[in-house]
From TrEMBL, chains A, B:
Alphabetical UniProt keywords: FAD, Flavoprotein, Oxidoreductase
Domain Acyl-CoA dehydrogenase/oxidase N-terminal: 48-159
InterPro entries: Acyl-CoA_dh-like_C_dom (IPR025878), Acyl-CoA_Oxase/DH_mid-dom (IPR006091), Acyl-CoA_Oxase/DH_mid-dom_sf (IPR046373), AcylCo_DH-like_C (IPR036250), AcylCo_DH/oxidase_C (IPR009075), AcylCoA_DH/ox_N (IPR013786), AcylCoA_DH/ox_N_sf (IPR037069), AcylCoA_DH/oxidase_NM_dom_sf (IPR009100)
Protein name per UniProt: 3-methylmercaptopropionyl-CoA dehydrogenase
Organism per entry: Hydrocarboniphaga daqingensis
Domain of life: Bacteria
Domain (Acyl-CoA dehydrogenase/oxidase C-terminal) ranges: 283-454
Function: Involved in the assimilation of dimethylsulphoniopropionate (DMSP), an important compound in the fixation of carbon in marine phytoplankton, by mediating the conversion of 3-(methylthio)propanoyl-CoA (MMPA-CoA) to 3-(methylthio)acryloyl-CoA (MTA-CoA).
UniProt similarity note: Belongs to the acyl-CoA dehydrogenase family.
Transmembrane segments: none
Keyword Glycoprotein: no
EC number of this enzyme: 1.3.99.41
Signal sequence, renumbered to the chain: none
Cofactor(s) this protein requires: FAD
């Protein structure tokens, strides 16, 4: 069985040495008194909870899966319910929730770091609280005061869980096609009918009630995405005192059998005149749902980071333990018949690739979560706007780039085990199967690439991208005279220049032909992702350089990993830039019938 | 359930229009009378057999898996046994076997094309006959006349099946560590004791007997790989009349639960003084086993090609059927609410990537199989040697490059399905899970990369590589004046030059430090693989250019796919070349303890 230990040293490095969050929080009145010790002690507890309560259920949950008992009843794998009760009892769901509704009011990045650990321990389990927190956020942003009063305390406590119901059999990415109908009853309620599929955590036995956020169309609503409204559809309608009332006509019809995340119930939900309550304005449902979707996209980044970390830990342990062949330069383990495989260059390539992507993913995603805190609670409007722009720009990167990288790194981790990696017992192949969904749900990675290039970059003439560029330029300027930073600063400048040039080229071509953008989007996204990682690796290298004389091997490793990143991973952009430049004809030229 | 139709048009294109096999066979006396019609009618029948008998058992075999009944007894999934009986009755195992032992004596490439189709239909099932054919080949090359007389007819008919028993719990890649012992009894028999793991098709109910080829050590044998001998260890010892005799002490202890290929039994085999017969010379067992291993490596290439083809077929059908969003330039399906997703540039990228890798893989692997026929039966010794060198050089490419590409393309095929790709029912995720093993078994892809660079390229100063280079140069010279071929010839020359330069650089550095080779091997292998594919794409483009005026859309598609390959896939070498040049320090520098 794989093991997991929360990577506290690296988490603390990112939060305190790289991002200096205590200082950052001083400018956010809502969090000004949150200090290093508070953060560390919460995350240490959280890491223990993840490692000791949730992780032991990962492999058994995969093996057992969820069960459709019949008549709409679904049970999660053994132990999931009890672990969720422990989670609720300890108050974890409330971590970064609003104190007005029972939350602890901690910054988002603390919750994010906690979620990294939960996901390392068990992605399938973590989706139950994860979607709950997403539903909380959507209602917090768009619910009426009454809705907030009824639902937020229950979602904050974890007494009730939440879902997002978007997909229908004929509409996945293209929500404009959705058909689920909402008929007004006349008393403020709506009756909703339709079929939703792929509803994660749609039905289960972890909580007494499930609050579904459902997209549907009002009578006479415009076609397409401008005629979609958002509704709260509770499994049990809350009664006057906030408790459990009548069973609503939303019912699980079946659960899917999937490649991975077996422990999470992926449900077909049938709505047969279920009562719902409108959230936000009519026909503006996608706008309200985007709060939840953006949260979910960052959430997918944290799932991917979590899997990358646990896969790295286990493959590293195996590489130190498993002996096979001699080191190329001669025996290391002279008294044994073979050396540990970590002596071999290609095993090291596989480990360092995992390490470089995982640690950059952590630095980047924690920083992005901090931007969300700035966006939500910085007193200066300009700072809020800048942070919001950075979050908007980089949400597709945290979703797609991190999940693509994790699919690569979990596969490298599996590969380190040789044939054993393919055997279920070792647990490595589960990480790969679980990681695979992250490239698909919450908007496929193709959709993310289009979102990045078309909506986030080209639509404002690169204004948001320039805001990230400004951060890079500042950092480059600060280090211009530092000879020891040259090896990091030069390639960072280079990739920044290349992104600027590539963006301009695609933008020019796309004005004449929109397919020039759609054909370039995926390789473009990988180039931008690497620019972001190069920035964070350069910044981490700077911290490590300053502290390497301490003799702490952590900084030696950090520097070596930075160098590996610049030498072995960033160079893949050379290929992607060429692919992004190849133009659309080569993709669009062939008639569909001739494929 | 996924569907499969044998890709006869493309198979015939490769065999007859690209490779002109009928002409090639005229110079091989053993096959001089095999003509186009014979080949086509055999493969058409083979394709039907694969599609109608084997393919329907793929998904059910995955779901059910093999069963360890107890006391060494294993059953394959429902229907496997009956399908194998049909396979045997129809004489398929004999296709390219020696007529002296009941074979049909057809060229190897015909068998290879047949195996592509079997693997598209069902990789797990195909491993039973595939390993049997491998055991046949090893015994055919190294068995005594008596051994051949006893075993080859039964393996040729398919009445008995075969396995290769190499791996032990503590030794996978590093066979030098193996411990299984063989004690001479004194009457020509040996008693063999030890534990073998990961034995594919090690025990099952498909055939009345199983012939294990087992690596073991004789008493006093030298340590390492030079003290390993090869033995025939039959499940039932054949009696005097060639029938089934006494049960031998080789027994399945358990079967593995794996990520994929569930329908093939992966066995722990316990040998407890089992009787064995030496094959070839004492202590030269690895040499004899390499016949089987090289065959198995080409076999993995055919497994990977088969999976790539079937995944492509299904994702293409889905992309033409599933409607979602409008085309970027405006509606195509005006009377429907959305367009088929094949109108979208990124879906086309995913389809064309699959198509480009699959069709190049077919051209390359069929050509390689033809080289084996030349190696085995060309009357001119120099031709035999040249072909043998090309086969040796390119076996790691057909194993690793094709399987790496297939893992990418089966994942792209899954991705085309969006969320449905993650659902078992659609069958796409099985292709990914099955494809994953191909990067591991028969020598991991890291081992293949080392084999290519160190053993096949550097050890003879690039002599074998130059033989492939000569083929390229000939083709380049033939097309020097052809303006219409320029777009293919120029990048082909370019990648050839780059490989020459890169090989020289790594060779120079590796003379001083062997880790310079081990650190560069994997990206080097991808660059060489692309050079090979660029050569075959240029050759296919030439055929297509010559015939495009026929109006047959097949050639239009072939040319478009060639252009896509050169524009969008070959460019990834730009990144890999930089990675291969990065040197070993960046990989080897960090102390293992600091990882």
């Amino acid at each position: 069985m794989p093991s997991y230990t929360a990577p506290m040293r690296d988490i603390q490095f990112v939060l305190h040495e790289l991002l200096n969050v205590e200082q950052e929080l001083k400018s956010l009145p809502a969090h000004a008194d949150v200090d290093v010790d508070t953060i560390n002690s919460i995350l240490e507890e959280g890491g223990k909870f993840a490692a000791t309560v949730i992780a032991p259920l990962n492999q058994s949950g995969d093996e057992e899966g969820c069960t459709y008992v019949g008549d709409g009843v679904v049970t999660a794998p053994k132990g999931f319910k009890e672990a969720f009760a422990q989670y609720v009892d300890a108050g974890w769901p409330a971590l970064s929730a609003d104190p007005e509704y029972g939350g602890q009011g901690l910054p988002h990045f603390v919750n994010n770091a906690f979620y990294e650990m939960l996901n390392s321990a068990n992605q399938a389990w973590t989706m139950y609280p994860g979607l709950t927190h997403g539903a909380y956020e959507a209602l917090h942003a768009h619910g009426t005061p009454e809705q907030k009063k009824v639902y937020l305390p229950k979602l904050t406590s974890g007494q009730w869980t939440g879902t997002m119901c978007l997909t229908e059999p004929h509409c996945g990415s293209d929500l404009g096609l959705l058909r689920t109908k909402a008929e007004p009853v006349g008393d403020g309620r709506y009756q909703i009918s339709g079929t939703k599929i792929f509803i994660s955590s749609g039905e289960h036995d972890l909580a007494e009630n499930i609050i579904h956020l459902v997209l549907a169309r009002l009578p006479g609503a415009p076609e397409g995405t401008k005629g979609i409204s958002l509704f709260i559809v509770p499994k049990f309608v809350p009664n006057a005192d906030g408790g459990i009332g009548e069973r609503n006509a939303i019912k699980c019809g079946s659960i899917e059998h999937k490649m991975g995340i077996h422990g999470n119930a992926t449900c077909v939900m049938n709505l047969d005149g279920a009562y719902g309550w409108l959230v936000g304005e009519p026909n503006r449902g996608l706008n309200a749902m985007f709060v939840m979707m953006n949260g979910a996209r960052l959430g997918v980044g944290m799932q991917s980071l979590g899997l990358a970390e646990v896969a790295l830990q286990n493959s590293l342990a195996y590489a130190k333990d498993r002996t096979q062949f001699r080191a190329a330069k001669g025996p290391v383990n002279k008294d044994k018949p073979a050396d540990p495989i970590i002596v071999h260059a290609d095993v090291r390539r596989m480990l360092l690739t995992q390490k470089a992507y995982t640690e950059a993913g952590r630095a980047f995603s924690y920083w992005l979560a901090l931007q969300i805190d700035r966006e939500l609670s910085h007193p200066d409007e300009k700072v809020r706007k800048d942070s919001a722009d950075l979050v908007a720009l980089l949400t597709p990167i945290v979703k797609a780039f991190v999940s693509d990288n994790t699919f690569e790194t979990t596969n490298l981790a599996l590969q380190c085990f040789g044939g054993h990696g393919f055997i279920k017992e070792w647990g490595m192949e589960q990480f790969v199967r679980d990681a695979r969904i992250n490239m698909i749900y919450e908007g496929t990675n193709s959709i993310q690439a289009l979102d990045l290039l078309a909506r986030k970059v080209l639509s404002d003439g690169g204004a948001k991208l320039k805001k990230f560029g400004k951060l890079m330029q500042q950092f480059i300027a600060e280090n211009a005279g530092d000879e020891s930073m040259k090896e990091f600063i030069e390639p960072l400048m280079d990739i920044g220049d290349k992104v600027t040039k590539l963006t301009g080229e695609i933008g020019m071509k796309a004005m004449k032909n929109p397919e020039e953008a759609t054909a370039a989007a995926v390789p473009y996204q990988r180039v931008v992702g690497h620019m972001v990682y190069a920035y964070f690796w350069a910044k981490m290298a700077k911290v490590a350089l300053a502290k390497q004389s301490s003799g702490d091997g952590f900084y030696t490793a950090k520097l070596a990993t930075a160098r590996f990143y610049f030498a072995k991973l960033l160079p893949e952009t050379a290929g992607y830039i060429r692919q992004a430049r190849a133009g659309s004809d080569v993709v669009m030229g062939l008639e569909a019938a001739l494929f």
